[in-house]
Amino acid sequence: MGTPSSAIATNLESRSTIQEQPVRPWRMIGFRRRLMLLVAVLLQTVFATWFMLSILPYNGGTWVEIGMASIFAILFSWISLGFWIGVFGFVLRLRGGDRHSLMHQQTASTLASTPMARTAVVMPIYNENVSDCLGRLKTVYLSLRRTGQVEHFDFFILSDTRDPDIWLDEQAAWASLTEELQAEGQIHYRRRPLNQNYKSGNVGDFLRRWGKSYPYMVVLDADSLMGGDTLVQMVQLMQRHPRVGILQSSPSLLNGQSVFARIQQFSNQLYGPLFTTGLAAIQMGEAAFWGHNAILRTAPFMQYCGLRKLPGWGLFKGPILSHDFVEAAYMGRAGQEVWLEPELRQSYEESPPTLVEELNRDRRWAKGNLQHLWLMLRGRRLRLAHRMAFLNGIMSYAASPLWLAFLVLATVAAASMVIWPIEYFPEAHQLHPVWPEWRPLRAIVLISITFALLFLPKFLAVFDAVMGGRSRSFGGASRLMVSVLLEMLVSALLAPIRMLSHTRFVLESLFNIKLQWAGQNRSGESGWSEAIINQAFGSLLALGWIGFAYWIDPMFFLWSLPVAIPLIFAAPVFVLLSRIRAGQTLRRGGLLVIPEESSGSQLLDDLSNEPIHHQAHGQMSAFQQALINPRLNALHAGLARDLGGATRKERLQALRTRCLREGAEGLSNTERTLLARDRVSLEWLHVQIWRAPAESLWGQLLRRS
Amino acid sequence: MNTSTPPSEQALRRVLRYLELSGVTITVDAEKQALALVTQALDADPGDTLAASMGLIPLYFELPRHSAPLPSPPLCRGSLGYGDY
């Protein structure tokens, strides 16, 4: 551990080559923990697969059964891994936390006396709700101001927004916010005219322009919320641990309104600490970067984390879509440590409000994670832990088609007992016949074991909350249990729906169908038509499947119901879970309550009581406002450039004339963007519009201004 | 108000609205000045009083100057390192 001054020196040092790092004590501890985890998972999987084979009619004697057992082994090991990480986290929390974590290596007074360093807080945004995301930024700023350390932080709103009505509103809201907080020169705004390489390209653009001015960079998502004390603590931890390149906090979900979002945030807040503690203890200095709510050491990040386009084929060609895991792997390769620190409080994000939105997001993430397969197999000198992190991300989505394949094979196996003649001698030169039969009692035992692996960590989390005196903040012990049961029921309902959707996303990704990278709906509800259209395929498939199952064997029909019923009723499930009023009713009843709601939170209070002053005009678009309102026109013209080039000037002139004649609606997004980026056009149109005849389009609009 | 409203009234309303949006406080004096402005515009160009009135605003009123805050700090250029895959 270095002194703060040496930390800063190291931090600013630019290394030209990747250096070999000496062995660090945590590596040996991490090795032992991972070995223990591996043995536990393997033993459990081998036993469960053997048990599974004993259930099957031919005990693995046919290709179908071999396929079933193989898939079962993969899926079971995946579940077992989650189980043991949860158990590990539980044990560590019982002991007061992991004493090898970064937080536990420092006393509170040492940390508090650590000098600060200049830090950029960057918020990349893309077609987001302006009031919401800038409202969150304001809350972070106010919280930092209360710490008395705000002068060490500069804020950057990094816009990749394409819609001129949104980015003009962003500019207006940013200017209003800087004035409101008297933070001119501290809260900055930059929009990229060309948004290459998605979010990583956006952050990369910031780093190229200003990265060298800041030893540290905190990355926020548009829905991130972080407390000032936490941000200060993160900078101080980085100062104290100069080998740490990325320090990832564990964001909790909050501010959910719909039933779906409230269930997500309840499970995240109750179960999350167990799993993140376990995960952090296994990964130690080779953790993953989740892309936001993290602090990065800027110099090594700039030096080692430029992302080349993938040179492969299909999915594996082009820009890297999910950049964060890759950046963590590259930092690890460069000898930098990446830590997940679950004990950093006041780090939040929001859940998608509906399942539809979550699945839209998963569609993008599935493609991004599957793309990591190429890096996992062909990435050079990456650390094994980071290759495993890639595998973990891939399995988050690949598990779904595997589960579906298992169901298909199970159906084939069940059908083969009815449709095709029974094979009494499945192997060549067999002396005694085999009497194939399913062993349902054994199957029930195996399912019980699987369910125990899935649900036991949840009950451990409840126990952890009760033991830690936190059950009151979840609504009290009895309401906590009812909430857990409700969450488990909804999880069971959603699992088959997610499985089918993720399978579709994986197939889309593998066949490299173009996906749209659109912003997230962070507040809306799902309508019936949207839900029915979205889930029609799954519902019809499930109906067909159970019909076939009933025809081949009523017992198999019963076994298929837990998967089929949620799929058949997916549309109502979607709609009900998206309801905000139902979510509020549950909250009033003390169900699915989270600590920030029951005990209060300064951040949440600021967020709801201190919205940004800027409000979008109710009747006019931001583009129309930019041309009409003298203050906004001066603002946007001040931020615009004098676009040059004879051809472009000619085009601008034609567009100005059309805009004056046909109004804003007569122009496309690209055309309006071009005009709004040109100072001369903005000023000219402003003058001409105010001189327009009363009966013209603009004249009529002026009367409503 | 519809388009049959006399041009002078339309011009007065537009001038006052512009002043208000520009941050000028509409006092009695300001209204009198606006009336004088429209009168001059009517004399100068009775065919297009609206445009003429708007053109005269800088002669009658000192509008508050609005400027954009500094959007970003001075550039401090650096580069990203692109290693192996």
Indicate the mean pLDDT of chain B: 90
Strand order of the largest sheet of chain A: 3-2-1-4-8-6-11
> What structural category arises from helix and sheet content of chain A?
alpha/beta
Major sheet size, sense and barrel closure of chain A: 7 strands, mixed
Low-confidence stretches of chain B: none
How many helices of chain A does DSSP assign?
Answer: 27
Alpha-beta classification of chain B? mainly alpha
**Oligomeric state of the chains in view:** heterodimer
Q: Helix and strand succession of chain B?
A: HHH
What share of residues are in beta strands of chain B?
under 5%
Structure summarized in a few sentences:
Chain A is α/β, with parallel strands linked by helices and 705 residues long.
Highlighted features:
heterodimer; A: 705 residues; alpha/beta; seven-stranded mixed beta sheet; three-stranded mixed beta sheet; 27 helices; disordered N terminus; B: 85 residues; mainly alpha; 3 helices; 0% strand; elongated
What features would you describe in this structure?
The complex is a heterodimer of chains A (705) and B (85). Chain A is α/β, with parallel strands linked by helices and 705 residues long. In chain A, 62% of the residues lie in helices and 7% in strands. Chain A has 27 helices and 12 strands. In chain A, the strands form 3 sheets. Chain A has a 7-stranded mixed sheet, with helices on both faces. Chain A has a 3-stranded mixed sheet with strand order 5-12-7. Chain B has a domain at 8-60. Chain B has 3 helices and no strands. The longest helix of chain B has 17 residues, at 28-44. By secondary structure, chain B is an all-alpha fold. In chain B, helix 1 (7-22) packs across helix 2. The model of chain B has no long low-confidence stretch (mean pLDDT 90). Helices cover 53% and strands 0% of the residues of chain B. At the A-B interface, helix 6, strand 3, helix 7, helix 10 and strand 9 of A face helix 1 and helix 3 of B.
